[in-house]
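Can anyone check this?
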Amino acid sequence: MKKFDIITLFPDSVSSYLESSLMARAMKQKLLKVRAVNLREFAEGKHKTTDLPAYGGGPGMVLKPEPIWKAVEHLIRKKEKGKRKTRVILFSLRGKQFTQKEAKRLAKYDHLIFVCGRYEGVDERVAKHLADEEIKIGGYVLSGGELPALVVIEAVARNIKGFLGKSESLEDARGSHPAYTRPPTFKAKDKRGKMKELKVPKVLLSGNHAEIEKWRKGAGK
């Protein structure tokens, strides 16, 4: 079973997605296990403080290193060390761009731990001395790492045998060419407001699979 752990201040923000569709089915079938880990459970003191102002001043708060360290150490059990391939990932705009190639690479690990920053990010010592790598899903700023974590988990999970069922062989081609369904013809206004008869390309209705494949390869370029 492949394991995914999301270290976050807001575990409820990811739970509803994990309980839906393919993710829920895959967990029920024990193909994978995904947990939202509450960072506050690893913070000390009466108020369970997880963030403080940055040294040197500036706006916003920075996540403290100690709770993150404790969370990661808790998730990497001693019995797993040396037996399971584990990767600790921090989401950062300085990180490597996440792609399908990266998803396939990460799918080779047994256990992925995602550190989700908030506010002004995490203490730099986490990036330098705890995380195995930094990843970004795009060149834009989000409020935290929860959405990137879900993106990466689904992309990686699609490379797990059995996750997609019978449609697995089609996944690499998904989105690479135009797709149509019934009805073969219908009338509607186009983006300019003109009424048109919109038709499915004749080749897709032909039943000639060789020609259809040839058309798809050309249409996807």
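Reply from J.R.: I decoded it. Residues 146-157 form the longest helix (12 residues).
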